[in-house]
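User: My collaborator and I are trying to settle a disagreement about how two of our proteins should look. Neither of us wants to argue from intuition anymore, so we agreed to look at predicted structures for both before our next call. Could you fold the first one, then the second, and keep them clearly separated?

Assistant: That sounds like a sensible way to settle it. I'll keep them separate. The first protein:
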Amino acid sequence: MSEQQDTVTLTIDGKEVTVPKGTLIIRAAEQLGNVIPRFCDHPLLDPVGACRQCVVEVEGQPKPAMACTTQCAGGWVVKTHLTSEVARKAQRGTIEFLLINHPLDCPMCDKGGECPLQDQALEHGSNESRFIDEKRRYDKPVAVNPQILLDRERCVLCARCTRFSDQIAGDPFIELFERGALEQVAIYEDEPYESYFSGNVIQICPVGALTSSTYRFKARPFDLRSAKSVCEHCSAGCNLTIQSRRGRIERQLARTNMDVNEMWTCDRGRFGFGYLTADTRLTSPAVRVGDDLQDTTWSGALKSVLSALRTEDGIKSVAVLTGGRLADEDAYAASKFARTVLGTDDVEFRTRFAPDGEVDALAAVTSHDTATYVDVEGAPVVLTVGLDAEEEVPILHLRLRKAWRDRKAKLVAVGPRMGSLAPYAWRHLATGVDQELGAMAALGRALGLSDMAEAAVASGYSSGHLDAVVDELRGREGVVILVGERAPAGVLAAAGRIADHIGGKVGWVPRRAGARGAVAAGLSAGLLPGGRRLDDDTDRTEVEEVWGGQLPSRGRDLHAILSEAAAGRIDVLYLLGVDLARDAADPALAAKALKRATVVVHDIARNATTDFADVVLPVTASQERSGTRTDWEGRAQRFDAALAGPELVQDDWEILVQVAGLLGGDLGFRDLDGIHAEMQRLGVRQGTVAWPATGGAPDATSGDGLVLHTHPVLLDRATMLTGADDLLRSSRPATISLSPSDADARGIADGDVVEVTGAVTLRLPVKIDRQQYPGTIHVPTNSTDEPATALGAASDGPILVEVARGES
């Protein structure tokens, strides 16, 4: 098709513009810098023409047109309010109608100062009102959910909120009810507005009808200090604007980045900042005296760290465990600190027990051109393995849904359950717990990867959907395979090799915000910065030349570290931003290790692990510092300090520089610029690291009981949700998922409270899920007093549990 056939040329306000066919007049005008007044229009929502404010005049047309619903045609001459009296008069009339019942309470409305209706009434409205009757009134406010309040009399019926809920989030629990003058936004009486994205309707509301319960009556926009930031709650990498007043965060807003989060963010990222001022916040260094932690000075705390790490003979046996909270600069500093100052490769950012071979797959991820949000949105087929995107990386879930809705993409879930993908999935390749490699090997064999045949045969995997999925993958360009961090050994490598074979892309999707940066920094035994490997002589030499000195020999994985610490053979556990006591794959083993070893902790807030600590060093939160964070795509994004933290907190890297100096070492940098310069020298290694062999699929679990399948949900008992009370009140009730056959065999009905018994007993209501793989049970990891992982020892393989109806 020729370029002329793909575009149309028209004139708007005397200026000629050429745009693609199908472009709306309102968008074409924006290309000329002409912003046509509007309320209902939003670039990411389907046009609806509800507010009638964007009137334009088209020469030759019998009546005015709505710019937000009318597509451009070649040769048209369009006049907007800038050149047409017809358009100006129509807009004045619309404003007058909107203000008939709209209260003039701008001084007390949260939208005052940033309100499009306020702005347009000033620019396009009349100086006088002809309305003399009493305005319509409603009881107010209506709690749409615990963090959203509705003032119905302010609503201009633009339908932005209802369209967002239906089209973008897929949670159509907020609707327009009644007709005519009685029409209003409302929620269903028997269906609460449960959405992880509900806060977006506040931000896109063009008036003060929808407001935040936490921000209501707190500040005016012109009183707030704004800073650009990147969300710290998951690996989505959402861009945020953080607004503070008098040293306290008042609200966090989604900041537009069309390549990442578009214009949205989830409620956890929007409202989950209460931990910064909660009672659990660490604001002073502390050392253990007897059974208690007592506040001390920084010099006193650092002396205690020095005493914990060093003996007369040198550095003690130390393991450095970091979790996934750290900014990229902190992760790099921790990696160098462990290898060059402590002389240990016993480092790990993962809290699950992972085999050594996974390090090679992570190195390959770093060096490959992996999937992005844009790839996901444009993919004809997307496979997700070991991933529930809405619970783990919510903005990625919106992109998956967008691909399904707009591109008719075929979504395939691989694993014991589909989770939030269930309403949209085209096929489910169901597997047992930790059996996903069998399904991936079967796909690889069917697609012509002969070296996966042995694993496929050994696993014995079969599914009625397998042939259909293979047919869709074969010969399709742009296929994306997304692998969650909890996918079992070999799956990431298998996914990468399948993607390379069919010309697609793979994406590794960790849950935590700092995980991809931790991989890039080499925070795992055998892994070095930039995807280099300790066992590769060339890689090792490159790092030694930059860092100076000789690197230590290959370290141990997390299970070995905890086992050795519990046995007294590792003296010190140096923890940076990881709640090991609650998040480790085996909490009982972690507790033994924490009790036996000397524990040094960097953290933001008190948690289960700080109760074991011998030294606690308080650190800055993401909003209180500058730095870089790398999202699941591998996209590094800078963020700025929005406000000052408590007086005595420091960045993690600053503390490590001081500790290194006390130990006689030198990390070689004193500021972020120095870290960045060194990180750049050790960027991704030239050349592509090959995907490792996938290995064999594990044997199916045998024995009495159900196999535990667990992962955290978005709103749970996480330390960084402390203080977000309104947000937590809107969380979905924690439930256990059982297959119908397993429930029937135990006499369990939907909604029954059941007891799940292993090493401990957990009580939760049950949900019968037809997509749950028989013989397995899903329990949310961090939604009960004890984590679900406490039900058994992950080091012994899959956890078997018993399930029975609880006593009333």
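The second protein, kept apart from the first:
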Amino acid sequence: MMFAAPLALLGLVALPGILLLLRLNPPPARRIAFPPMALLRNLPAAQTTPRGIPLWLLILRIAAATLVILGLAAPSLHQPPALPGDGPVLLVIDNGWASAADWQQRHDAAASLITAAARAGRDIAILATAGDAAGTAPRITGVMTGDAAVQIINAMQPEPWPPDRTADSIALRGAPERTRIYLADGITDGAGFADFLKILSPTRTLAGPNLPPLLLPPHLGPDGSLIVHLDNPPENARLTATNANGEILASAGFSATGDAAITLPLPIAARITALSLQGPQTAGGTVLLDGTMHAALVGLAAGSNTADLPFLGPLYYIRRALPPGSQVFSGDLASLIGAKVNLIVLADLPLTPPQQVIVRSYIAQGGIVIRFAGPITSADPDPVTPDPLLPGDRRLGGALTWASPESIAPFPPDTAFAGLETDPAVTVSRQILADPTRLAPATIWASLTDGTPLVLGTRIGKGYLISFLTTANADWSNLALYGLFPAMLDRLAGLAEGGAPRPGLVLPLGSALSAFGTLSPATGSIAIPAGRLATTVISPAAPPGLYGEGGVSLALNLGGHIPPPQAAVLPDATPFTGPAAVNFGPPMIAAALLLLTFDLAISLLRRGLLAIPRLAVLALVLLPLAGHAQSAALQPTLGYLQSDDPATDQMVDDALSYLSAEVSAHTSAQLAAPVGLDPAVDDLSLFPLIYWLIRPDTPAPAPAACAALTSYMSHGGLLVIDTVGGDSGDAGSGAAFSPGTDAALARATACLVLPPLSPLSPADVLAHCFYIIDDFPGRFAGAPVLIAAPAARDADGVTPVIVSQNDWAGAWARDANGTPEQTPIPGGDDQRVIADRFGTNLVIYALTGSYKADQTDVPALLDKLGQ
């Protein structure tokens, strides 16, 4: 126990005087009836003195005074450890990216050490090992008092780059001998750490208990999923995918090997702007995404009916050369643009004048159009090309020509193909020629060894138009048969809005990533050539963030751009996360005030100024408890099946809590807080509705749980089975979706006895039991909602089960501040409103059944529905 204000303890000397004053307590007042004669008759002749107070009341008042004095002295436990040595103290603090994960504990440890030095009368000097954003190298401050050192520590923040060990060593070489205390981040931060530690020679070393986690660069899986590896994963770590507004689109757990995969429909996956670890955000636990990390939505169209013919058709080779994970659509030009693909490949397809206008508008809005030549387009080239083309074609090789097939020359440095190695085995024997009189040199992205252009490209608005002057099959060139072809298409697929720019383009820092994983507008004039970003090392001169402007943006993350984190060997290191100081001052003063309040009440009672019957006091205490018990017994409660994922359970609990509050606010039903259930243990009959969210990794329930759920449905309960898939299927018929068509749903419900199911329609009671709605979206929209077929419902016509893929909980979930936790796709807040209304209908339907189906309500409902 120690005291921050020990002089306040002198107040204890006054306790004897306080005791003397407390003993002078006047006797209680007496009621004396008038007239005055009776008053005079009862007056005692002898002079009286004040009577002493009871011992217990005297002890109470002395205790209150003692608590006030001790509280003002600010007693606390866990005083700072004694510092070694004497004289000034040099405090060396790692404040690089790895320190952000435990920055508060690091700050508290530094403040505790400074307090200990100040009490010992020792001055402080501080060395922060990471350079600042202005590029100033680390340096040791001058010696200062404890108050000044605390101000510096309070203003210090972690930096989103590693410490500069070389500059740290230089700063330490000229420093005078002092007691040196090192607050380490626990990793080596690359070369130079051994020399730094040797020069530092710390008297004491403190380090955090865990290595900092680091997300490595993601890559696309074969199915278009984003796969990320995590170094030093914390226990139960989860990965979240967020959009530009910070709304969570998906989450996933990490495998035993430290890998996590985010799988979403490609239109939704294209909205992901960042991947991060759940919990406290750090730069090491955040990966920013740009256009190059999104799987492409590719539309294919050709001017021939045999375009997909194996080994002969041009689309046959294009399909196999597209980047991994690409989602491919085929059709006419109008349907492809309507499908919102971000890349269209036209294989020997001429364009009519109206189509030419549509294509140019599509490109200007950020689309990519790649055109391949062929016999059809070579006869009469249309003007939708980077440069005008000549009719006809040029033939190289063959019995009637003198020329031989030409190979491809090295790619120019300022094009999308810069850096790709050409293959001398790739040759072109036939091509369309660009008009040399109107050819712009900047549009030539690839040419043959004789200088003839082979690929033309230009930017139109936010998008690009690229023309291959040869075919996409082996008729005019063998390009489609070699690995250079998919490499070229991969570069072009990255040219969508926000995608890969020309390597020589200099990109300014637009948004900077802080050490705590937050993006903010960049200040200063930092810029890096696009071609160097892949090999750039994170530093104050190249901080992490988004680089680019004008629709072109590339992400620079810590993972892959800093030395791999390796545990540092720190002899005699001790944790700095010791027990925090416990200040007893405020609780002591609060206890004193409570005792004085009790003393006041006793005084008023003894003087007859406060008369409260004891039974009334007891009733006031017990009445709220009784009312609470009664309301808890009478209020209906929603239940949900617990999973083995705490994050999922929390999201579902938030969703049903919000839904319960909405129902309580807008209807006469008053719902209690939702309850997580284990069907194998809990009594399900107490809950009118049970929600079950099935994830891709949801295991099949135990036999006892399956039996309980089946019994629950057969005895009047409503089981709502939902998934997070968002697979719209055939929204019109409902035939594309059933519990057997979804693998996770089929596995989880295989042991249940489900009735025959049919699609929910707007004519069913569930669609108008409170709100009248004709759509039933959740976080996703379009998937049919299945309920029991009419013949399989109970005697009142109520379904025992509802099955969907719309993720209603994702649309309902709000955090403690009422902020939505996830974003409905594609309708946003308007879709969320409909989801909330459908949730209200679900609860009312579970509570009241099919009373709205009574014939007395039919005319009014038909009138509302306009029928």
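Some points you might bring to the call about the second protein. The CA atoms of residues 61 and 596 lie 7 Å apart. The chain has a mean pLDDT of 82.
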